[in-house]
């Protein structure tokens, strides 16, 4: 067997079994799936990064706001706790820059804003003394939020101003006792406050009441820019790594999977297109594809065996078919033979019946005829005594008919007729016995009756003629019990064997015309034991060779000329004895000394 490696297969030999449709390759599908998967991973990573950046951004804005807010809070506390008490030691005059914490803090932040103008400090109120400190819409909502949530210390958020986003952080301001001097009753307030702000706004507040908020607006453009920059860097980096990863995975997949699968497909197509050439996949991998290669090689071995043994299997199958046809032919011939024997049995039974009817009249009247004849002869003798001298006419008739001869011969004639009718009656009985060929049921019978009936049917072949002398039948019957059998089938066996013996004796007689050859057939029956009997049929013909003897029970085997025999007689006999009656049959023969068939049958089946 010639083997090929997959690498040795010429590309021009390969032609697809069916022209494939344009389809996406496995590598392309894998790459698309990989890109989709990585895109999903990138999207999830980007969202998580964006959320992290938002938290970092917000924490940075809060830190900035708290830093500035704490600075403003420190400035305000300094004015309240240090500057105002120190100024009051020297004068009771209302100095806004020293005694008003809001005014002083605002002035401090104006200086602060000169250096960092982006930060905005406010201390808005719902009803301030200074109209410039009036809370806008957002600040009003913040103050109301603190009023509705007195336990809250800070709040934060975003607002848009001049198309820019600004972060804010606010703390509530509660009315304290020290503030009542300026925000209590208008009549108790310093005259400088009344002169500057009037008596309409900023008065009549109570201790603990949230009157305003301290709020810082912090710019976040730089934070947003940094955030966007980091996100872009992350995206570009991730995309670059993804491309490199996809390329590496693609090349790795192509090497470990794609090329190997392509080799597998090439090998499979080559094996399909060239069954006479053995294709093997040289893949030593330990993974699933390696296992697939081993399975393919095993399958290829099986296909090679099947292909190489195809002719043998076809011949074997042809032989089986021929054997089946032979068996069918044998069965058909057996059916035809069985039908012939059944028809013969029916014919014999009909003939026996038709002969038996007139025979009954003959047998029944012979006795009367014999009696009447004796009486008439006695009457004639009496007349002769009484009339010893008859007239001339009677005497002449007596002389003409030879009355004395008739008187002596007539009883003998009637006696021979009676013997003939008895013989016909015996023949009819034997014909009836033989006519049981068409009976299929098992019954207990005397096997000697079947043998005798067969001999009656073959009697005409036993008589001498111009071709051969009379064939003698010698019977050595033992005392046998009734046996369980199909009598019609056994009669068929006896007829086949005795007919073959007669044929052999006729052939021997033709070959020994100048000798004193006396043909004979010996039939013996023996009781072997309480379970078994034996029937042997022996002729003194020429015998048969060992080669012929080994084939005599084969269907359609015959040594007779064409048209003289079918070769089914002994084959059918073998089946009847062995298969139907669980007996045995075999042949002993010696050239020049004759042939003997030995049949053994069980008494019970």
Protein topology:
Blueprint: E1 3-5, H1 26-88, H2 96-99, H3 101-115, E2 120-122, H4 137-148, E3 155-161, E4 164-174, H5 180-183, H6 191-197, E5 210-219, H7 221-273, E6 278-280, H8 288-308, H9 310-386, H10 392-401, H11 403-434, E7 443-445, H12 447-457, H13 459-462, E8 472-476, E9 483-485, H14 487-511, E10 520-529, E11 532-539, H15 546-549, H16 569-580, E12 584-590, E13 594-602
Parallel strand pairs: 1-6, 8-10
Antiparallel strand pairs: 2-5, 3-4, 4-5, 7-9, 10-11, 11-13, 12-13
The rounded Rg comes to 69 Å
Report the β-strand fraction as a percent range.
Answer: 5-15%
What is the fourth-level CATH superfamily of the largest domain?
Histidine kinase-like ATPase, C-terminal domain
Low-confidence stretches: 1-20
Largest sheet: 5 strands, mixed
Structural class based on helices, strands and sheet pairing:
alpha+beta
* Domain unit count: 4
Anisotropy-based shape: rod-shaped
Taken in chain order, the helices and strands follow as: EHHHEHEEHHEHEHHHHEHHEEHEEHHEE
Number of strands: 13
Instruction: Give the N-to-C terminal Cα separation.
Output: 58 Å
In words, what does this structure look like?
By secondary structure, the protein is of the alpha+beta class. It folds into four domains: 31-47 and 228-261, no CATH class; 61-226, no CATH class; 309-434; 439-605, Heat Shock Protein 90, CATH 3.30.565.10. 59% of the residues lie in helices and 14% in strands. The chain has helices at 26-88, 96-99, 101-115, 137-148, 180-183, 191-197, 221-273, 288-308, 310-386, 392-401, 403-434, 447-457, 459-462, 487-511, 546-549, 569-580, and strands spanning 3-5, 120-122, 155-161, 164-174, 210-219, 278-280, 443-445, 472-476, 483-485, 520-529, 532-539, 584-590, 594-602. The strands form four sheets. A five-stranded mixed sheet has the order 8-10-11-13-12, covered by helices on one side. The longest helix has 77 residues, at 310-386. The protein is rod-shaped and about 225 Å long.
């Amino acid at each position: 067997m010639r083997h090929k490696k997959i690498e040795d297969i010429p590309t021009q030999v390969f032609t697809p079994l069916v022209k494939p449709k344009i389809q996406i390759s496995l590598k392309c599908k894998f790459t698309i799936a990989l890109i989709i998967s990585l895109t999903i991973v990138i999207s999830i990573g980007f969202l998580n990064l964006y959320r992290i950046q938002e938290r970092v951004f917000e924490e940075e804005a809060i830190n900035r706001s708290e830093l500035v807010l704490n600075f403003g809070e420190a400035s305000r506390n300094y004015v309240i706790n240090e500057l105002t008490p120190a100024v009051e030691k020297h004068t009771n005059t209302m100095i806004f820059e020293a005694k008003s914490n809001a005014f002083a803090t605002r002035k401090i932040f104006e200086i602060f804003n000169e250096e960092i103008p982006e930060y905005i400090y406010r201390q808005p109120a719902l009803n301030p003394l200074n109209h410039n400190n009036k809370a806008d819409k957002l600040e009003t909502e913040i103050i109301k939020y603190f009023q509705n949530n007195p336990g809250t210390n800070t709040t934060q958020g975003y607002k848009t101003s001049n198309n820019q986003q600004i972060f804010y952080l606010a703390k509530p301001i509660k009315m304290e006792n020290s503030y009542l001097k300026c925000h209590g009753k208008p009549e108790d307030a310093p005259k400088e406050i009344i002169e500057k702000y009037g008596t309409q706004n900023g008065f009549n507040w109570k201790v603990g009441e949230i009157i305003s908020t301290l709020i810082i607006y912090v710019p976040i453009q730089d934070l947003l820019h940094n955030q966007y920059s980091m996100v872009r860097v992350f995206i570009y980096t991730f995309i670059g790594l993804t491309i490199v990863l996809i390329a590496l995975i693609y090349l790795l997949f192509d090497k470990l999977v794609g090329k190997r699968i392509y080799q597998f497909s090439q090998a499979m197509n080559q094996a399909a297109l060239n069954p006479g050439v053995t294709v093997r996949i040289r893949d030593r991998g330990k993974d699933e594809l390696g296992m697939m290669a081993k399975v393919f090689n095993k399958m290829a071995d099986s296909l090679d065996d099947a292909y190489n043994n195809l002719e043998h299997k076809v011949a074997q199958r042809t032989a089986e078919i021929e054997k089946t046809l032979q068996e069918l032919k044998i069965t058909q011939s057996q059916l035809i033979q069985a039908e012939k024997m059944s028809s013969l049995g029916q014919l014999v039974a009909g003939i026996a019946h038709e002969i038996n009817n007139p025979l009954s009249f003959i047998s029944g009247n012979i006795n009367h005829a014999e009696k009447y004849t004796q009486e008439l002869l006695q009457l004639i003798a009496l007349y002769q005594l009484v009339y010893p001298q008859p007239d001339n006419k009677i005497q002449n008739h007596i002389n003409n008919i030879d009355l004395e001869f008739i008187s002596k011969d007539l009883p003998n004639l009637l006696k021979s007729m009676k013997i003939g009718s008895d013989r016909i009656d015996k023949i009819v009985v034997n014909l009836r016995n033989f006519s049981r060929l068409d009976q299929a049921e098992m019954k207990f019978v005397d096997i000697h009756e079947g043998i005798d009936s067969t001999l009656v049917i073959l009697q005409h072949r036993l008589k001498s003629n111009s071709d051969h002398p009379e064939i003698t039948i010698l019977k050595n019957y033992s005392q046998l019990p009734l046996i369980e059998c199909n009598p019609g089938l056994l009669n068929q066996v006896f007829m086949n064997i005795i007919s073959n013996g007669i044929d052999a004796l006729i052939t021997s007689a033709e070959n020994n015309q100048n000798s004193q050859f006396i043909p004979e057939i010996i039939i013996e029956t023996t009781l072997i034991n309480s379970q078994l009997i034996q029937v042997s049929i022996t002729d003194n013909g020429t015998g048969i060779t060992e080669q012929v003897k080994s084939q005599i029970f084969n269907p359609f085997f015959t040594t007779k000329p064409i048209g003289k025999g079918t070769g089914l007689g002994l084959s059918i006999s073998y089946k009847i004895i062995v298969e139907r009656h669980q007996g045995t049959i075999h042949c002993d023969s010696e050239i020049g000394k004759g042939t003997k068939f030995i049949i053994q049958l069980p008494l019970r089946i």
